[in-house]
Amino acid sequence: MIYIFLGAPGTGKGTVSYLLNKKNNYKHISTGNIFRDLVKKNTKLGKKVREILKKGELINNELTFKVLLEEIEKYNLKKENIILDGYPRNIEQAEILFEYFNRYHKDLKISAINFELRNKIIIERLTNRLICPFCGKIYHKTFPELKPKKEWYCDDDKTKLITREDDKIKSIKKRLVIYDEKTKPLIEYFSEKGILIELDVNDTPNNIYEKVLKICQN
Ligand code: AP5
Ligand code: MG
């Protein structure tokens, strides 16, 4: 079973994915996380990716599908629950993905959940985001359910938390524009395929988690 998590940056896709992975063993594939790991390697490619991420632009479709494929092929797509968080990000990526599924994984059940939130709240969430550079866990500086127990330190591995390079306001605005131009058309695309589920995510993380789990178990 494949669950595509669609939605603008900062709508909480990574946060819900973390909970579904921890509590229900859903496999979480985030192309953003894969690229951030690539940046850490500091290779020539890593440096190139870093510049693109920092500006808030999209990585090219070819490289993105290559890194996605390397990850997706680790799993049994028929038996496991797989979350695709942040892929596809434009119509061409969706077509590449469906062509791959049609060719190699016929009859796979696919749903796309669209995380809906106003830009004002998105900006508040992103400018207060902290992440653990070691395990990737996502925090919010002040939100009760999401703030670290010890300020600026990861609850799980005690690593000092950092802010994401693309959580500067200029980069956030750029990502929101790119979302409107490139990613939003996927809402209609998935709707036409009959696999779209709309979800208002202006709620607490635990409530969102419960709602998403219910959708997935239906
Ligand atoms: P990616 O990592 O996917 O970033 P994004 O889409 O911009 O989304 P975010 O991770 O910023 O938001 P999220 O929805 O996961 O929210 P989160 O749970 O963190 O991609 C990064 C970059 O990689 C892209 O810009 C691009 O360059 C590249 N890339 C990735 N995929 C690509 C692709 N397919 N093609 C090309 N390029 C690609 O939560 C956000 C904040 O809100 C946190 O502080 C969190 O604590 C807080 N929060 C979460 N839920 C709640 C809640 N319910 N209430 C209050 N606060 C909440
Ligand atoms: Mg994310």
Automatic annotation (TrEMBL):
Catalytic reactions on record: AMP + ATP = 2 ADP
Question: Where on this chain does AMP bind?
Answer: 31, 36, 57-59, 86-89, 93, 164, 175
Record keywords = ATP-binding, Cytoplasm, Kinase, Metal-binding, Nucleotide biosynthesis, Nucleotide-binding, Transferase, Zinc
Q: Where in the cell is it found?
A: Cytoplasm
Q: Which pathway does the protein contribute to?
A: Purine metabolism; AMP biosynthesis via salvage pathway; AMP from ADP: step 1/1
Domain named Adenylate kinase active site lid is located at 129-166
- Please list the residues that bind ATP: 10-15, 129, 138-139, 203
- Chain sites annotated for binding Zn(2+): 132, 135, 154, 157
InterPro entries from the xrefs? Adenyl_kin_sub, Adenylat/UMP-CMP_kin, Adenylat_kinase_CS, Adenylate_kinase_lid-dom, P-loop_NTPase
> What GO biological process, any one, is recorded here?
AMP salvage
Residues of the region (NMP) are: 30-59
Q: Name one GO molecular function term.
A: ATP binding
Q: What does this protein do?
A: Catalyzes the reversible transfer of the terminal phosphate group between ATP and AMP. Plays an important role in cellular energy homeostasis and in adenine nucleotide metabolism.
What does the record's free text say on domains? Consists of three domains, a large central CORE domain and two small peripheral domains, NMPbind and LID, which undergo movements during catalysis. The LID domain closes over the site of phosphoryl transfer upon ATP binding. Assembling and dissambling the active center during each catalytic cycle provides an effective means to prevent ATP hydrolysis. Some bacteria have evolved a zinc-coordinating structure that stabilizes the LID domain.
- The protein in question is named Adenylate kinase
The organism is Candidatus Hepatoplasma crinochetorum
Gene field: adk
